[in-house]
Write a structure and sequence with these properties.
about 475 residues; five-stranded mixed beta barrel; single chain; eight-stranded mixed sheet; OB fold (Dihydrolipoamide Acetyltransferase, E2P); elongated; 2 domains; alpha+beta; 16 helices; BirA Bifunctional Protein, domain 2; 16 strands
Length: about 475
């Protein structure tokens, strides 16, 4: 056993011994509840005008984790931390008595306690809670991360997120900000008359995006099922059924690689609005993200409308000099890429795949300010309506900011015969080797044959939005428990 391992073993043994002593003294180290707790930040805010040395008779009940402790003769100062912040506790022997005071200061860093006390401000000017009584709420059997160095190892932070949350205030604040962003999205859609629905995560046929699925087996049904890659097709069936404005905020799953922008399990919000088109949904997204921006005190990106706008064809031409509208032949595009000296892998790539590569490699990194890129080739968009004035294109946009794509929208295809033809084309792409092609979905076609009104739909990546608004560079930072390789 190394010296480090031996030291940890001694710490764990000492904490176990304290646990047993508490039980021997008739103290339950893991009680059931501690009702009536106030957030520490609210207690502090309520006494911001208290003068140095002033005491009150205002009682408060708080709870949290012991983060630091300093003894000063017959008094002690303890830093208590909860999700809202930190507050100093001031404990005195003459208030608690010798035995209770000794029990309090014998508690370990990381222990969870509940405290009843009154608000004071010390002579040094720090707002504190003078301890009248306390209760051990959970004995911590493992030491917390080092209080001076925190928890900086990235692998440990992601694998043991509970330690990251204990040690790093900025991590706790990041996930509180994430909750604020999600809440703002929901409120904005709810106030616009949308209803939140839930559709299957396990699906008999995946669809709604160009991606590979995770596959599983259902024992009782004796059939293969797929984790959904999108909620689109079920939400459109809700539109067919007359719900008219629907959204779903939840997890999607795509069996793809890991990167700073990709996690196989991720959060999306998709919404669909009858009697609207993709222009209407651009305005809707601006409103939703404006509300999300306002939910944070210091957003890293300003999503205030109006955003920049361009077309896919013009954006590629501006960034590479290539005009994808000249020819739909793969060989012609490969030749143009080579002639332009672009560093792009072309072997095995279809024409639409190469167009998508040009976008992701050369255009996307340049789109730092919130930008809509409109009007995509039909081959890249099997669920969008044909463009009203540009043959070969569809009414689709993608939204970008900070050099990454965050949202995708269509004037949704509602002609069942045209959708059937698109599915056939996708099947041909799959037969040509495109693993991400959309499978043929007869059930969805039957739903469209019932009649779906003109509809605009949007898919918004919540994880990437949180990355941008909170100013972090990796998607794993904004997912509590991201996918990790085995050690």
């Amino acid at each position: 056993m190394s010296g480090e391992d031996h030291g940890l073993a001694e710490l764990l043994a000492a904490r176990r011994a304290k646990l047993e002593r508490l039980r021997a003294e008739g103290i339950e180290p893991f009680p059931y509840a501690f009702p009536g707790v106030e957030p520490l930040a609210e207690v502090a805010a309520g006494h911001s005008d208290l003068a140095a040395g002033e005491e009150t008779s205002v009682a408060h009940r708080v709870a949290g984790r012991i983060a630091a402790r300093r003894e000063a003769g017959r008094a002690a100062f303890i830093d208590l931390v909860d999700r809202s912040g930190r507050l100093q506790l001031h404990a005195r022997v003459d208030e608690l008595g010798e035995q209770r005071f000794e029990r309090l200061i014998s508690l370990d860093l990381g222990d969870l306690i509940g405290v009843d006390g009154v608000a004071i401000r010390t002579r040094r000017g720090e707002l504190s809670l003078r301890v009248l009584d306390f209760t051990l709420l959970a004995k911590s059997l493992r030491p917390p991360p080092d209080k001076h160095h925190g928890l900086s190892d990235v692998e440990t932070r992601f694998r043991r997120r509970e330690l990251d949350l204990i040690a790093n205030e900025q991590t706790r604040e990041l996930f509180l900000d994430r909750a604020r962003i999600v809440g703002a999205i929901r409120r904005t859609l709810d106030e616009a008359g949308f209803i939140e629905v839930e559709t299957p995560v396990l699906q008999p046929l995946y669809g709604g995006a160009l991606a590979r699925p995770f596959t599983t087996e259902h024992n009782a049904l004796d059939r293969t099922l797929y984790l959904r890659i999108a909620t689109e097709l079920y939400l459109k069936r809700c539109i067919v059924g007359g719900l008219e404005r629907v959204y779903e905020l939840g997890k999607d799953f795509r069996n793809e690689g890991l990167s700073p922008r990709h996690n196989p399990e991720f959060t999306m919000v998709e919404w669909y609005e009858a009697y609207s088109d993709y222009e209407d949904q651009a305005l809707r997204l601006e409103a939703v993200l404006s509300a999300a921006t306002q939910a944070l005190p210091k957003p890293a990106v300003d999503f205030t409308a109006p955003w920049q706008r361009t077309t896919l064809r013009e954006a590629i031409r501006e960034c590479t000099g290539l005009d994808i509208g000249v020819s739909r032949e793969r060989a012609d595009l490969v030749e143009a890429i080579a002639a332009a000296g672009l560093e792009l892998e072309t072997d095995g790539r279809t024409w639409p795949g190469l167009v998508d590569d040009l976008l992701s490699h050369y255009v996307e990194p340049t789109l730092q300010q919130p930008t809509f890129v409109f009007d995509y080739p039909v081959e890249l968009s099997p669920f969008a309506k044909a463009h009203r004035s540009e043959p070969g294109y569809v009414e689709r946009w993608e939204a970008f900011a900070g050099g990454i794509e965050i949202a995708n929208a269509f004037s949704e295809l509602n002609d069942p015969d045209e959708q059937r033809a698109r599915f056939v084309a996708q099947r041909e792409q799959a037969q040509a080797g495109d693993e991400d092609a959309q499978p043929f979905d007869e059930s969805f076609l039957e739903a469209l044959e019932q009649g779906m009104p003109p509809t605009g739909g949007v898919g918004l990546g919540v994880d990437r939005l949180v990355m941008l608004l909170c100013g972090v560079q990796s998607i794993r930072e904004v997912i509590l428990f991201p996918a990790m390789r085995d050690r």
